[in-house]
Amino acid sequence: MRSRALTLMVSLFLSASVSGFHLSPPALAATSEATGQKIKVYSEEQKGMVMVSRVDKTEAEWKAVLTPEQFRIIRQKGTEPAGSGAFLKSHASGIYRCVGCGQDLFSSTAKYDSGTGWPSYWQPIALANIKTAPDNSQGQTRTEVICSRCGAHLGHVFPDGPKPTGKRFCINSLALTFMKK
Ligand SMILES: [Zn+2]
Question: Residue 20 above 70 pLDDT?
């Protein structure tokens, strides 16, 4: 656990140094977007990397399993109002998972109060479990954070987080479920 956390920190540092702010871990670059494609991600339950199938659904299928608010956030790149999220003030120990596919995304150990109005984390549970992409919408230059398994829009990552990564993963509560430890 300790060495994995260290590796993650080093990876975050390296990717930040090499590619400016955009996280682009080499392992993710090789990941295919094809339907049913297997990807390697970290599983908290297995305490290691596992192979899982990507989750691809049609818009109708997503609407059938998500609430309208969840659908607006994770499938239409929406943002919940600042201060409104269910997990904003949560300090319970556990794992935050993707509401779309259940993939482990963030540990409560990396959660902190950023004062922004959204749940904030200084690192994902594993770089393989997320993807990032440039987002130039709304006249801003931001980096979108996406679930690597189902493509859910989760939020954005900013370069003003606390040590050791200096990153702030600013995530919508509506994109998450919580598994208490
Ligand atoms: Zn997902």
Answer: no
Residue 180: burial class (beta carbons within 10 Å; 0-12, 13-18, 19+): exposed
Measured distance CA(48)–CA(59) in Å, rounded: 32
Q: How far is the CA of 65 from the centre of ligand 1 (A)?
A: 13
Find the 63 Cα to ligand 1 centroid distance in Å: 15
The domain segmentation of the chain, as residue ranges, is: 2-180
**pLDDT band, very low/low/confident/very high, at 4 (cuts 50, 70, 90):** low
How large a percentage of the chain has pLDDT more than 90?
Answer: 79
pLDDT for residue 36: 73
Q: What spacing in Å lies between the alpha carbon of 50 and ligand 1's midpoint?
A: 15
Rama region for 117: left / alpha / beta (φ>0; ψ in -120 to 50; rest): left
Question: CATH assignment of 2-180, given 2.30.42.10, 2.170.150.20, 1.10.760.10, 3.60.10.10?
Answer: 2.170.150.20
Q: State the Cα–Cα distance between residues 159 and 16, nearest whole angstrom.
A: 9
Please list the active-site residues: 170
Backbone angles phi, psi at 30, to 5 degrees: -85, -5
Q: Is the per-residue pLDDT at 89 higher than 90?
A: yes
